[in-house]
Every structure is written in structure tokens, then in C-alpha cells.
Amino acid sequence: MAPDKLRLMATVEEDHWWFRAKRELVSEVLAGAGVRGPVIDVGCGTGAVIRRLAADGIAPVFGTDLSPIALAAARGGTAPLLRSLAEHLPFRSGTFEAIVSLDVVEHLDDDVAGLVEYRRVVQPGGLVVLAVPAYQWAWSEHDVQLGHRRRYTRDRLRRAAEAAGLEVERATHFHAWLAPAAFLVRRTPVGRLLRGEQEEASYVGPRANRALSSMAAGERRVARRWAIPVGLSILLVARRPADGET
Description:
By secondary structure, this protein is an alpha/beta fold. It has one domain: Rossmann fold (3-Layer(aba) Sandwich), CATH 3.40.50. About 40% of the residues lie in helices and about 20% in strands. The protein has nine helices and seven strands, in the order H-H-E-H-E-H-E-E-H-E-H-H-E-H-H-E. The chain has helices spanning about 5-10, 15-30, 50-55, 70-75, 110-120, 140-145, 155-165, 180-185, 205-225, and strands spanning about 40, 60-65, 80-85, 95-100, 120-135, 165-175, 235-240. Helix 1 (about 5-10) runs parallel beside helix 4 (about 70-75) and helix 2 packs parallel to helix 9 (about 205-225). The longest helix has 18 residues, at about 205-225. Mean pLDDT is about 90; it is low at about 190-200.
């Protein structure tokens, strides 16, 4: 990820509705599964997720990231932080009760190899929670700046997880109400009428931020019962099989 994007993330992710929505989803998933730790956030960025998990009472929480800028921004809490590739984690097999990895596997040259490594370091029966951007048709210059290799459909992400030996429990889209707007901007002439970087328009004022946070909360209530069929992001929850194989 470009350094300026990381610095921007560090300034907004605690309160920004987009980032908060993902943290709330992860928090609900781990709480529902009764996860208490240890947990690792692979690709922890500037640390908002590990701070949230620690606030939830999960301990210990570890974080890894490849970027020194991200790790420097994440320091200051109690979570151990390490610089590491997602595909080569410096932990023994079966170390963690759960792995969280948000907006990471789309950066990997080989997503299956990365997920095999996630499977290795999680305990038998342990949880793997992923979030990725959806729809290749939504590809834009923003993806290039963020260092993405691909965007996903639910089926594509499910196949990658299963190829890595994980058992998928749940796969749902989220940020559903943004998909029509994204299609208009990126696949029709409407996009030519916009100036500047489209994604920067999502950095909204406090009132709009509260409204969008409320919309995201309503969407989470739906997602607790049903898989949402459309949305600009995908959440996948899987487990390492409980047979103890490595």
C-alpha cells in the first residue's frame, strides 16, 4: 500500500464508518464463536482492529504487517507487533485460536498459498476471518494505488479458502448499498463527470459519518440471519478442520 494511503488510514480509521463497519463485523463473529485468544491480525495496518479486539477482552492479540509505517502507527498498545509476510508467518503451527485478515489476501500474488499459511498457524478447529473487496468490474486506479492483485466474488474467495484446506462456514457481502453507486461511477459515463479520486469522497463529515454508520449497523443485523448477495466487500468465515492435520 502506498505510504500516503497508510498515513491517511491512520488519521481516520478509528471513527470512519467504513473501517468501523468491518471491525464491528469481526467483533461479532469472534464473540459469537466464543473466541478468547490468542488471536492474530495478519496485515494489521495501523492497529485499529487489534485495539478493538483487546477492548473486547481477547488476549493475547498479535499483529503482523509488512509495512514499517503501518507498524509504527500501530505501536503504543500492548499487542505484540511483528513485521512479516502473510505467506510466511513467524509462528509455530497451531498457535492461534483465530486469525483475522482484513483486506489482505487481495494483495498476495498467490492467495491460496497465503491461506495455507493461515491454516497452518491456527489451531485445529480454529477460526479464519477474512474480508476482501468485491467485483472485478469495480477495479479502479484506487486498487492500483492500494497494491491489489484482484477483487473477488464469493465463489472465488470460497474456492481459494477450500483449496487451502479450510472449511467455509459463512460468506456474505457487505456494504451492499454502495454497489449500485460504484457501478454507475466505474462502469458508466457518470464516472467521467466526477473530478479527483472517487474514493476520497467517502471521507465524509460527522453527520454523514453517523448516518452511514447507522446504515452499516442495520446491514449487520440482516447479515446475522442471511447471506447478503451484493456489496462492495465480502466477509468469509472458515475453520481449520479439527482433525489435527498440518
